[in-house]
Amino acid sequence: MIIRILEEEVMDDPREAAAYDAMDHSEVNAKFVEDVCAAFSIEPQENAESPLDVLDVGAGTALIPIALCQKLPNARVMAIDMSTAMLDLARANIDMDGMLGRIQLAQADASDTGYQSEMFDLIISNSIVHHLEDPAPSLREIARMVRPQGMIFVRDLLRPASEEELSHLVETYGGEDETERRLLADSLRAALTLEEVRELIAPLGFDAETVQATSDRHWTWAARKPA
């Protein structure tokens, strides 16, 4: 078993943030949004009587909130991140895509956001957990903020079982750029195993089986909060 080696929690170097934003995440982001909608049978509603209030935890440069709002006309998103460099790029992306009225940004700690309990219909998060030394407080905060019967969709990388498996994943998905390959390898080493994630979810009142391996390199926690 590979020992977990942490990455930096906050990517606040403007050059690193710009390099991350420049990577082509469109296919991955579209898949994330499609999977969120499929998990909870969410359909686009042009004239919905009430908005779908969404929180994106660790939103980065806001590409997923933009994709979600493009698919769901009634969605409005609060997108939070700790990185000022990421949020600066997020503002530009939101403005460029004409989403200033539907996506709000805030610098906030995922483990202590300051938002009210049971405030959001849907909370999403993509690839933040592997950045956290102790993910438990942030997962607990997500469970606190979602409304009863509200939806949680958290996805992140799975830590490989061996160096051979890690090398295979980097060869398969790391692309040709050496920096991208290094970042992927570092992220895989910092990720949790399926068992580790389930151990974190169970005390929050959710069935551990709501966390599943959803690809050869990802786990997903998809659940509704008990009433």
TrEMBL record:
Keywords: Transferase, Ubiquinone. One of its GO terms (molecular function) is S-adenosylmethionine-dependent methyltransferase activity. Residues 55-153 form the Methyltransferase type domain. The keyword Hydrolase does not apply. Pfam families: Methyltransf_11 (PF08241). SUPFAM superfamilies: S-adenosyl-L-methionine-dependent methyltransferases. PANTHER family: PUTATIVE (AFU_ORTHOLOGUE AFUA_2G14390)-RELATED, TRANS-ACONITATE 2-METHYLTRANSFERASE-RELATED. This is Ubiquinone biosynthesis protein UbiE. The lineage of its organism: Bacteria, Pseudomonadati, Planctomycetota, Planctomycetia, Pirellulales.
